[in-house]
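User: Write out your own:

AI:
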Amino acid sequence: MDTEKKSTFHPALASSAWIVAVVLIAIFLNSILGNTSLGRGKVDLTQDKLHTLAPGTRAILEGIDTPVTLRFYYTRDSQALPRPYKLHAQKVEDLLARFSEVAGPELLVEIYDTQPDTDAEDSAKLDLIPPRRVGLEEVVYFGIAVSCLGEKERIPVLDPDNEELLEYEVIRAISRVMNPEPKRIAVLSSLSVLDFGSQRGNWAFRRSLGIFEAEELDAMDLSGLDDRFDLLLLYHPPQLDEAARYAIDQYLLRGGKILAFLDPYSYAASEVNQANQRQMNPMMGQAPQLPLASDLPEFLESWGQTFHGPSQFGDALVLADLRYRTRVSLDTFDEFMLTFSSEAMNEDDITTSGLRSLSGFAMGGFSGQAPEGLEKSVLVQTSDKTALMPSSAALQTRGPEAPRIEPSGVEYEVAIRLKGNFSTLFPEGPPGEEEASEEEETASEEGPEHLAEASAPGAVVLVADTDFLLDQLAYDNQRPEIVFINGQPTAIPSPRGGNEQFFLNLLDEMTGDTNLVGARGRSLRRPFTLLNELEAEAERRIEDKIETLQEGLSQAQARFEELQEQRRGGAGNAVDREALELEEKAQAGIVRFQKDIRELEKETKSERDTLLANITLVNVLVPPLVVALAGITVAILRRFRNSAR
């Protein structure tokens, strides 16, 4: 009788042997494939391709033909360094590794552990990377320096709060050292924006344009507008004659870039007009007046865009938005001073990504479709609770007496970008060519050749406001910051909101490498959608209550005016009693409104805290429960399998 041979290996021992074998095979395959292109390949499964370099970034890196050195200074073992900086440092190293992989040997990446009293710290000081004091005594470094053939750019501090701009900031520094020539900007404006003689005001232009070579042009003679300029800045431009339009048209067709700030009602221009009139001798009559509106009608029509606001007849129209209006007191809003939150901005565009707010006043709006050959991107957009109101009534009346706004349901575009091959406004040739004399024809032949179609792609950014660069909106005079001007420490107003940064982003983008125009600024954060929806709903409820209160106050004000008329007509005590009762009711309504707002805020806070507590509870309990259930399931399956044997 044959005896059945049984395995002498215990099942647990056999399982362990299989696990060890699998681990050894994985290590072997990793070591073999790690040095091949297959092993270095990566698959980006994130929603917004967060770990994939933007096409423009790859183009710049692949175009490096001169050795570029990038030094990353990071105090690695500092115990005082906040955790967000440590996490950000790993992301910086990962990004630099991808840069090096694409650029090859032409990009040398050096990472320095910048400890005190070391060669690494000396190198950081030579690169002007500033130390940051953490705690009482400890000093840390966290910045990048890029150099190429004697040119140097630096990112003094890598801010984790601007993580979505990391790729752009680093590739911009690389692009700058590869192209060190200073950028030139031609400025055309009806305002004296480059008048830096004054020591006060005009901070946006003084601080932003100060890093460029800016030259103001005369609208009556734009013959100097040529390829020497990297950007044409039209800031509240004057009305352009045919010769000026032709010069701008040809500049754009040659691949030029235009940044245009238009306005249906320029508060800055109105201030200048009033100041000029005050300084004018009354005997001399009316002082010269600057235009309050600016427009580019011929160009906008060619680009398929409509600018809502300017009017050749009567009042200009300015934009009101009940969603983004600015609160000036507890129960009062300014519907024409708009403060856009990040929800109104294009989070996928480097120009607006990372901006928290953007303020403007008495602005217009764009609409339209880009024609064939052009690509349109919307940078900032209103809500659908908008209305276009006559400027005179809108800007002279505030509070309960302000005109009632009926939302149109239209979303207007406040800032847009157009890029591609633009069409000419002059397909028949230069203006006045038929009447030109022989001498003028000979002179024109010496100038640039007429272009009937684009010889290179161009780019245009349109912004429907100029007042957002006013000191009152862009800066906080109560919180000055110290900067060095001509080597001397100078106290200047600190930026308020994102107005200055928006302007800087536009200048930097439009004067940089063409691969930087429209580069993506991808957010690496994932918002708490439920919390945002909860807070948005609470804000809508508060706004509804405020609108109800304002309507009641408006009715009370109207009734007060009727009572005043009756009193002037001879009515006495009865009118006084009703007026007193009306005032008491209005005051009671305000008190009740304030109480309702407090209760609503408490309710919202309670719901928010409950939601956060539930999220925390789920995060704490669900992972171990899943692991426990998986273990129980495996144990049951094993027991069932063993019993079947």
About this structure: The longest strand covers residues 475-485.
